Write the structure tokens for this entry.
Amino acid sequence: MSLYLLAVLLAAVSGLPGLFLRRRGGGVAAGLMGLAAVLGIAAALRVLAGGAAGRLGLPAAPLGSPGLLVLDPIAAWFLLPVLLLSACGAMFGLGYWGERPGARLLRLVYGALAAFLALLVAAAHPLVFLLGWEGMAIAAFLLVMAEDRKAETRRAGWIYLVATHTGTLCLFAAFGVLSAQGAGAFAALPRGFAASGSGTAVFVLCLLAFGFKAGVMPLHVWLPPAHAAAPSHVSALMSGVLIKMGILGLVRLLSWIPDPPLWWGALLLGLGALSGVLGVAFALGQHDLKRLLAYHSIENIGIILLGLGLGTMGKSLGHPILQALGFAGALLHVLNHSLFKGLLFLSAGSVAHATGTRDLDRLGGLGHRMPWTSAAFLAGAWAICGLPPLNGFVSEWFLYLGSFRALALSRWPWSVGVLAALALIGALALACFAKAFGAVFLGMARTRAAEDIHESPRSMLVPMGVLVLACALIGLAPALVAPALDRVVAALGSPAVAGLPALSGLASLPLLSALALGLLGLALLLGLWLRPRRRDAALPTWDCGYAVPSARMQYTASSFADGPVTGLRWALLPRIHEARVRGLFPGATRYESHVPDPVLDRAADPALRLSARGLSLLRFVQGGHLPVYLLYVLLTLLTLLVWMVV
Amino acid sequence: MPGFLVFPSHVALHLLVALLLPPLIPGLIAKVKARMAGRTGPPVLQLYYDLARLARKEAVFSRTTTWVFLAGPVGAVAAGLVASLLVPFGHTPAPVAFEGDVILFAYLFGLARFLTILSALDTGSSFEGMGAAREAAFSALAEPALFLGFAALAKATASLSLTPMLLAQGAAGVRLTGPLILVLAGWAIVYLAENSRIPVDDPNTHLELTMIHEVMVLDHSGRPFALVLYGASLKLVVLGALLVDLVLPATSRPWLDWLLFLGCLGLLSGAVGLVESATARFRMTKVPQFLVAGVLASGFAFLLLLV
Amino acid sequence: MSPDFLIALIMLTNFTLVATSRINKAIQVAVVQGVLLGLMPIAMGLGRHPHILFMVAAAIAVKGWFIPFLLRRALRHVQIHREVDPYIGYTASLLLCAAGTGLSLVLAHSLPLKVGTTPTFLVPAALATLFTGFLVLVSRRKALTQVVGYLVLENGIYLFGLLLVEDMPVLVETGILLDLFVGVFVMGIVINHIRTAFESTDTRHLSELKD
């Protein structure tokens, strides 16, 4: 516990020395954050390996419940990605952001964000939870607005602020309902509570609050602009960890309810499938690399919700194996996604740093000059598509196993929906990342910006390497994390789950590792056989005899994705501007396609504009006179006092 | 069901068949097509000779490509070989069988597809990019068909491993006939699509508007090309084993099982050759509809099992 | 020195503050009020805890010396000595302050608070000080006077906090920290910015910032 507290403290102050040092501030910050990560991860691993949960509480109990901070298995599991990604991001920021103006503030707030996140995962009291929640939201807002000279960044920051505070209001309401019921928050709730009216209210409010934070469709509107506008190591932290805090909230809620009604699990499954499929469909239409990655985060949150839904259905139906597999898949995907999404955002940052652009249709051929970044992005893409032998496959493996097992459970084929959704998501994600990786790193450079580049400095490459190793480790040896997963799932599921055999045996993990290693060995052997020999010639692409193809003749990213986007145009509603090619000898023409976010641009924006027009009638209240505002406060206070007395 | 290795002799035979048999299948198909067209056609063992010849040749690499270019052929063969370990050939159990190996099976082919697409994009050519785009789009439709078929079999046999799922024919008390035909139909469509056979794709054409798989491997030569051809034939065998196992009756003796399997595989190749000779390639816009038909067939198979 | 005596003095300072138009005098009143408040815990008989003694010393130092020091420094920079033309006239403010004190006496009687060893007039005094501070905030124009009003508001809250000082001194100490925060932040930064932006500390100009 003391290790954990020390880690939180170190993370919080990591930006402080940079305020006073002239040049080495970044290095000190990264070093402190790295130390914090090592200590915190050690504390978390100790708890996950079977150690006792650490507790911290105030001696007198003025706030209503005993513990303030409890480092239990759930907290320890979520702490792992928090600290690992913060440390990697801090090191990445050394080379990426350097000592630009605003670097000191950035480092300070980054450290504060990491500390608030670490505090939030172990919160065991509503006030501490809310403190961490708000602190995280505001710190993230400040970080998103790091480049606030651009109008697009300001817009992204405002949308984020509004969305997160709407969620926080719902969270306040949820905690209010919980305490009004007399139920002590952060402890197991009595049976029958979940089925009551207030239980339903709590669930819906929590879904709204945590859905806003996690980016569940249709509450995802803040995610793409914010992730695209923020600096890349901040995007990595946001995508990898911040949105997982929404999942943390849902996990905590589910761990308090011993008897969730069936419709809870069904709703989670529905939202998961919706987010997953639509998320990846929208990602296919994007031509900004970071927006694409942001939509993929939405998709992966969908997959995590599918896992939570499976587990909750298992809890409702009294099926321990389904619970174990569903929850294990969801939780492992939380860790996996933070690893490979962090990796992807860091490499995207490397690309943006080298070329100055994020537009897929302006890049190309970067694999020649930036081999390490290219390999890191490939590893991230490989993992996120869920392909063996990396870690994405293992978490989807659990979900597939769970949904196959659930086929036998009831007459309703609900788990076929899960299966179909997972298969569709996998296939579309494969297409999308083939497009992204191909458009950026393969082929030839499409513009000048993509030609005059060099590989990123070591400070940016090492964090990517660490994340690649982590992905490979979990992918090749999942049996290592299975015992920790067992412990976390036991905290989450019904008591029957604790009595199940270990996850390794249930999911045949050692055999998977053996096959994965066999695959790698075969690939290595074949690769050796194919090793280019000295006398092999190097020539331009043959391409069926078309001599010397130019860079502009390559398939662009939009063309690659055109098939699925056209097929899904009823959902994506792309905006296409084209002048058709006519006649035998046509002149120059242009084509432009754009997939805006429909919830934001077609639903939220018009609705808010309408309500703004209505509310502007109340404008007179905001007169601009300071004393009048203070008068409002005074009157409110008096009214409340009188009301309390009367 | 834990993984286990049964009867080492069967394992050895399985591995041998998986390694050495594949190049025979395209030869058989080509022979059937030639006969149907009134020609003599190349010898059935032609692909073996081709592979040996290619292994001796120099490879030519485009300047635009990186190491990803070689990942395509390597991935296709490595994934195919590991997948062949999971599929039972005939009524002998597969060397590796455990619960959920269907998922690994499907995802191994997904891996091969991913790497092939990337190696096609690596050349920076518009044709190969086009083939890659089509492959990515069409596989998004073919995957659910495969998975729904697996779901139907899993529901019918109440098991999650390829070996019990496919070999339930021999076991008594499993009613499969109606849904079985639908699953076969769906999977036949997937087989034609994944192996780039007419009517989905023409393996012999060189017109850029009509290619999917063929165009993705335009720039390979020498040893990489040998791996590409071998990987394609391996896919024919492994996916064909899925189809054949569904209809194969069980016999009492293992050697008879093997012979029956090999014979049925030959019959399947003949059937593919017949289909290729008798039909023309679909217009590209009809291919998605064809694949959706496959999805519907598998889907209905599953629904029938619920009733 | 009974606590009720101190409380009566505090209420007197409220009236004085509301009636004065000279900024220097307002600051002096704030100092006196701060010292009186600082001495309250000792008068309430809690002087035996060393923790509380430390808190008393800190409160007197901050409220009685540090904040007025900052205020006087700002006064020297700004060179304004009189509050001119407030929104609510001085006589009216005095009457309102009296009404407020009366209201607090009535309200405090009906509030559902625990009856313990606290002096009887503590809660009404707290409410009255709160109200006075608000009144000054709402009715005065100059930023410096408004800051004094805010400090008096803080004092009212601090008085409330004294109800809990035996159980949770930490909470009350945090109140002192808040005073410090206000002193540095508000005075140091805001007044300076108002002055440089508008060349005066008349807060009427802040309305120009309205959207």
